[in-house]
Amino acid sequence: MSGFTFKKFKVEHDKCAMKVSTDGILLGAWAYLKGANTLLDIGTGTGLLALMCKQRQPALSITAVEVDEAAYNQAQQNIASSPWPNITVKHTTIQAFKQAAPFDVVISNPPYFNHSLKGLSDARNTARHTDGLSFDELINAYMRLSHKHSCFNVILPTTEASLFIELAKQSGLYLNAHCQVKTTPGKAFSRSLMRFSLINTSPELTSLCIKNENNCYSDDYIALCKAFYLKM
Questions:
Q1: CA quadruple 208, 62, 200, 157: dihedral positive or negative?
Q2: In Å, how far from its chain's centre is CA 181?
Q3: What integer pLDDT is reported at residue 16 of this predicted model?
Q4: Where are the beta strands (DSSP E) in the chain?
Q5: CB-based contacts of 102: which residues, under 8 Å, 6+ apart?
C-alpha cells in the first residue's frame, strides 16, 4: 500500500521524501486553531497537515507551500482527491513566498537535522536537513507572514526544540504551549509540540505518552487522534 488511509481522506506519499509520520499526525491533531480564519502550512510535503487542519476546521482558508516539485505534485493530488479540494498549494520556497494578508495560524513540521550525515537522496536531504530552511529563516517567515494575534505551531525533536525556543525568544516570540512527547512510559521525551506568538503568557506545559505499558495506544493519544485514524 503506497498511502495512508485516514477516516476522511487518504494521503499518498510514494513520491514524497518525507512520508506520513507520527510527528505530522501529532502536530495536525494538536495545533491550536481556535478563532482562526486563515492558515499557512510551511513545507506541506504530502499535504497531511493542511488536510488535518481542514478536517478539524472546514471553514479555514488554507495555503500550503512546498519547495520540492514531486512533493508539491503529490500534495496537489492528495488535496484534489480529498473532501477539501479548495486548499491552495504553492510550489515555492517560503523565503520567496508572498501574501498580501497575514495569516492567523502558521503550522510547520520543519527540517531539523543540522549536522547529521546526509543520504543519497537530494529530495530527502532537503526535507530532513536545515540547509534549505534554517530555524532563523522559518521564524523570520512566520514574523513576516503573521499579525500580532497570530500563532505558530511546530513540532521538533527535544534537543532541536530547545534551540528553536531560544531563537524564537530572540525574535520576540513567546512560548505559549509546550507538550513534551514520549513513545512509551520507559522512554525519555523525544518530541516537543510547541505554540508561539507575540503574546506574553505563561506557557501551558503538558506531556503525552503515545503508547502505554502494554504497547497499545494510550488513552491520551487516542483522545487526541481518534478523529483521524481509520481504526481507533
A1: positive
A2: 15
A3: 84
A4: 3-5, 10-12, 38-42, 61-66, 88-91, 103-108, 146-157, 174-182, 191-197, 204-209
A5: 145, 146, 147, 150
Distance CA 220, CA 26 (A): 11
The three cell numbers locating residue 108: 510547520
Cβ–Cβ < 8 Å for 180, 134: no
Nearest alpha-carbon partner for 31 in 60, 6, 5: 60
Q: How many residues does the chain have?
A: 232
SS3 state at 74: helix
Query: How many Cα atoms sit within 13 Å of 178 on the Cβ side?
Result: 18
Q: 96 exposed, middle or buried (CB, 10 Å; 0-12, 13-18, 19+)?
A: exposed
82: which 3 cell numbers?
480529498
CA distance 26 to 141: 23
- Burial of 137 (C-beta count, 10 Å sphere; 0-12/13-18/19+): middle
22-39: string of b/e by CB count within 10 Å (b at 16+)? ebbbbbbbbbbeeebebb
**Could you tell me if 148 and 175 are in contact, meaning their C-beta atoms sit under 8 angstroms apart?**
no
For residue range 212-229, list pLDDT tens digits in order: 999 999 999 999 999 999
Residue 188, judged by CB atoms within 10 A of its CB (0-12, 13-18, 19+), counts as: exposed
Mean of pLDDT values over 205-214 = 96
